[in-house]
Amino acid sequence: MTKEDTVKRIGIIGVGEIGRAIVLGLRHGGGISPEVFLSPRGARTAAELSARYEGVRVCADNQEVVDRSELVIVAVRRQDRHDALAGVRVAGDKVVVNVMAGVGNDDLRRTLATDAPLVRAIPLPAIRERRCVTVVHPAHPEVNSFFERLGGVLPVADEAAFNVFSALTGTLTAHYWYLATITSWAAGQGIAPDDADRYVRGLFQGVGRSLSDETRSLRQLAADHETPNGSNERIRTTWFDPANSEALKKALDDLLADLT
Ligand SMILES: NC(=O)C1=CN([C@@H]2O[C@H](COP(=O)(O)OP(=O)(O)OC[C@H]3O[C@@H](n4cnc5c(N)ncnc54)[C@H](OP(=O)(O)O)[C@@H]3O)[C@@H](O)[C@H]2O)C=CC1
């Protein structure tokens, strides 16, 4: 990273879940951090962040956020983008980071009518602890180094590839739901719900830790946890059978088609 690639003033339009996570990530661990300019909405989170951190300010309107920043992150919901951005002028020397799922850069350029570089990005909530690898497109030196310091950056070649990663992020809550389902199954067998909950969390925290071992492929990790003809193999092959795998891939295909 060169000194020139380090932005000193960041703007965030839309201070909700992900906007907040980005600010926490920027301030995580102390050290030198850019100034942050927040949109007046969501007011409660913006007020909380500006009270908590030096150098984080709430602006009067979205135009002021853009005017004060070198790099502007658009983090409103897709359906709010026109309200948030119509009439906002973005000079060509700014960089705009678009984190809205399902909103392509062509769409955003029509709304903003600007020549400024537009970069799509998929930050995840773990960015608040700088533990998120953020997919971006197209690669841009300032945006790359911004996300690099927040846990890592993965630039991809085109929007088609970007959308595949975006579809992958749509599988997260199904994973939690899977855990909730097996927990309630155990409770249905007469186990105290708190005990079932505690046990399932412990079981899958171990899975989370083993994922950080990148020397073993995902299939290898599965094989290493499985005894031939044992219980894990049984559930994998009877429940996660080819029809179930196909149903999952079909759901992802459909999601990808909608994102494209
Ligand atoms: N949550 C996540 O993990 C991720 C979300 N994203 C994307 O980020 C975007 C935001 O998601 P998320 O943070 O979950 O949503 P939230 O609803 O938590 O936050 C959206 C924020 O946008 C604000 N907002 C609405 N209208 C305007 C406006 N006109 N001007 C400025 N701000 C406005 C809302 O303010 P108010 O409270 O006042 O209504 C709210 O604070 C989405 O497009 C989503 O696809 C991307 C990656 C991950």
Chart the SSEs and their pairings.
Layout: E1 9-13, H1 17-27, E2 35-38, H2 43-52, E3 56-58, H3 62-68, E4 71-74, H4 81-85, E5 95-98, H5 105-112, E6 118-122, E7 134-137, H6 141-148, E8 153-155, H7 159-169, H8 172-188, H9 193-211, H10 218-224, H11 231-238, H12 242-259
Parallel strand pairs: 1-2, 1-4, 2-3, 4-5, 5-6, 7-8
Antiparallel strand pairs: 6-7
Helix pairs in contact: 7-12, 8-9
Domain Pyrroline-5-carboxylate reductase catalytic N-terminal: 9-102
Pfam family, one: F420_oxidored
Protein name: NAD(P)-binding domain-containing protein
For the largest beta sheet, what order do the strands appear in spatially? 3-2-1-4-5-6-7-8
Oligomeric description of these chains: single chain
Write down the Rg.
21 Å
- What is the CATH-assigned architecture of the largest domain? 3-Layer(aba) Sandwich
Task: Give the N-terminus to C-terminus distance in angstroms.
Answer: 32 Å
Overall structural class, as computed from helix and strand content, comes to alpha/beta
What pattern of helices and strands is seen along the backbone?
EHEHEHEHEHEEHEHHHHHH
Overall mean confidence score, pLDDT: 94
Give start-end ranges of low-pLDDT stretches: none
Can you tell me about this structure?
With 260 residues, the protein is an alpha/beta fold. The chain has 2 domains: 3-159, 3-Layer(aba) Sandwich (Rossmann fold), CATH 3.40.50; 172-259, no CATH class. It has 12 helices and 8 strands. The chain has helices at 17-27, 43-52, 62-68, 81-85, 105-112, 141-148, 159-169, 172-188, 193-211, 218-224, 231-238, 242-259, and strands at residues 9-13, 35-38, 56-58, 71-74, 95-98, 118-122, 134-137, 153-155. Strands 3-2-1-4-5-6-7-8 form an 8-stranded mixed beta sheet, sandwiched between helices. The longest helix is centred in the last third of the chain and has 19 residues, at 193-211. The radius of gyration is 21 Å and the shape is elongated. Bound molecules: NADPH dihydro-nicotinamide-adenine-dinucleotide phosphate. NADPH dihydro-nicotinamide-adenine-dinucleotide phosphate binds at residues 13-19, 39, 41-43, 62, 75-78, 80, 83-84, 99-101, 122-125.
